[in-house]
Amino acid sequence: xxxxxxxxxxxxxxxxxxxxxxxxxxxxxxxxxxxxxxxxxxxxxxxxxxxxxxxxxxxxxxxxxxxxxxxxxxxxxxxxxxxxxxxxxxxxxxxxxxxxxxxxxxxxxxxxxxxxxxxxxxxxxxxxxxxxxxxxxxxxxxxxxxxxxxxxxxxxxxxxxxxxxxxxxxxxxxxxxxxxxxxxxxxxxxxxxxxxxxxxxxxxxxxxxxxxxxxxxxxxxxxxxxxxxxxxxxxxxxxxxxxxxxxxxxxxxxxxxxxxxxxxxxxxxxxxxxxxxxxxxxxxxxxxxxxxxxxxxxxxxxxxxxxxxxxxxxxxxxxxxxxxxxxxxxxxxxxxxxxxxxxxxxxxxxxxxxxxxxxxxxxxxxxxxxxxxxxxxxxxxxxxxxxxxxxxxxxxxxxxxx
Length: 402
Ligand code: IMP
Ligand code: MG
Description:
By secondary structure, the chain is of the alpha/beta class. It has helices at 15-23, 75-87, 107-120, 132-141, 153-171, 179-188, 195-204, 237-241, 272-281, 300-310, 320-323, 370-383, and strands at residues 2-7, 28-31, 40-43, 48-51, 64-67, 72-73, 96-99, 103-104, 192-193, 207-214, 249-255, 257-260, 294-299, 314-318, 328-337, 340-342, 355-362, 387-391, 399-401. The mean pLDDT is 95.
């Protein structure tokens, strides 16, 4: 089985938790894109982990993790995550593999991310400043440093020196201290594999691909330019892995309401007290940056768009428990411009200008409540997709099959 579990919104749908839950039935969880901008929170009960780069496999099982070439790797971050796992009693050194063609996120990438954002001023994307965009840009510029390049220290130093000069000339960014790169490489080295060597093993294995961010942050199909630097859609699995893959199932994860970190359009956004109530109840603060997430109601046109362009087979809904106890719960069902109903615009930057028509549901006390059933049935009938699991709380075990 080859299955992908990905986000149908602007990230933070709870993919980390869901992936961890599902992972026990797979040989590998495969990260195919993104980098340490991702913050996949996994609450085991006794302890909580936030994965930025380590794939979200259940550490209590034998499932392994593969970081494919589509990921940009901040070596420092992954080494720390692996150390943290060791500290709490889980040695995962035999369970992690990283493609040697993955590009390395360098300090200059983070510096440039920061600088670009500050120059853009009120047009800033609101990135995580983890150097993601610049690392992918250098990959495309064909000046990036891959893990494989670090095998030969002399050549790697030449490449780093070239990059250092280039960053100075192009961006007035100074960086000369390469030592930490080699120190981190020494620690990460044992996990590095060739994507060719691992291909036949992967083709025989049950793979669970773990998406990062959400379809609406996809570089092409998301709300450009307010997106991340790579493919968040399920289409990213192939370029991420470097070879074709036939997916048996696409499982889209969505939250019962909606959040977004960073800038960009958000038609169903709430403000003031209403937003604060949702933010507090759902603990909606960025797992990577700690920023308060923007909060709003579930947006059906956006969900339908994400389902359509990812050819979603089935869905998992998370965080409906956060809405328990509310008097009324809303879903944005249609967009209007100047009072006239409009279809979901093809160019989703137009989302800036739409007004939203809502449908209101009576609140529910708990997830057995009939009012919650009505909410679920409405979403299923509008999207034409089944919700197969409901996440009912923060812990990995808080999930029910529907
Ligand atoms: P970048 O990925 O750091 O370049 O940021 C680009 C946009 O994607 C910003 O709006 C970020 O807040 C958003 N973003 C990046 N990673 C995540 C994530 O894991 N969850 C939610 N939003 C994210
Ligand atoms: Mg997150």
